[in-house]
TrEMBL record:
SUPFAM superfamilies: MFS general substrate transporter
Any one GO molecular function term: transmembrane transporter activity
Transmembrane portions of the chain: 59-77, 102-123, 130-148
Membrane topology: Multi-pass membrane protein
Gene3D superfamilies linked: MFS general substrate transporter like domains
Name assigned to this protein: MFS general substrate transporter
Organism, as annotated: Periconia macrospinosa
Compartments, as annotated in UniProt: Membrane
GO CC term, one of those recorded: membrane
Family matches, as InterPro entries: MFS_trans_sf
Length: 157
């Protein structure tokens, strides 16, 4: 059981019944801590068995399939450049030497450098809107990639 005493101090009771005081975050830090205020508010919530069944149902039938489909599309996107290479992508773009390797590396660099901004956006805005927007932008980028005719244009996208 947890009770909030002040914005920066939380009292918790562990499994053995011992009461512990935890110094939390200061006011400025709490405002910037993503989800911390909601976490503290939810500590006293209790759910019925019916509500828990409904939540599991929602996760299993709605959220999980959307996650799996998005992950499958992401995997196909990562491998699509290699499949295109099998069908003459290097020749069509006139790639020489290690240019195809640099182009492949740029795909993964985009994933790497996009992780922090997406995490920040999900913390500040509703996750479903951020994910929908980023999926749309990702799809547009893949469509634009099909229209490239030179190495520099493919690298720019």
């Amino acid at each position: 059981m947890t009770n909030e005493i002040s914005k920066s101090e939380v009292v918790m009771m562990d499994d053995a019944g011992n009461v512990k005081t935890i110094n939390g975050l200061g006011t400025a830090e709490m405002e910037n801590a993503v989800g911390y205020k909601e976490y503290l508010e939810a500590m006293d919530l209790e759910a019925t068995e019916k509500e828990m069944r409904w939540l599991r149902w929602k996760i299993d039938l709605i959220i999980l399939p959307m996650f799996l489909i998005t992950q499958a599309l992401q995997f196909m996107h990562k491998t699509s450049l290699n499949y295109a290479n099998l069908f003459g992508y290097q020749k069509a773009l006139g790639l020489k030497g290690t240019q195809f390797n640099y182009l492949s590396a740029m795909v993964y660099a985009g994933y790497f450098f996009g992780q922090y901004p997406c995490g920040w956006l999900i913390g500040r805005y509703p996750a479903q809107k951020v994910l929908a927007t980023s999926t749309l932008l990702w799809g547009l980028t893949v469509i634009l990639m099909t229209q490239t005719r030179t190495y520099s244009s493919a690298l720019a996208i």
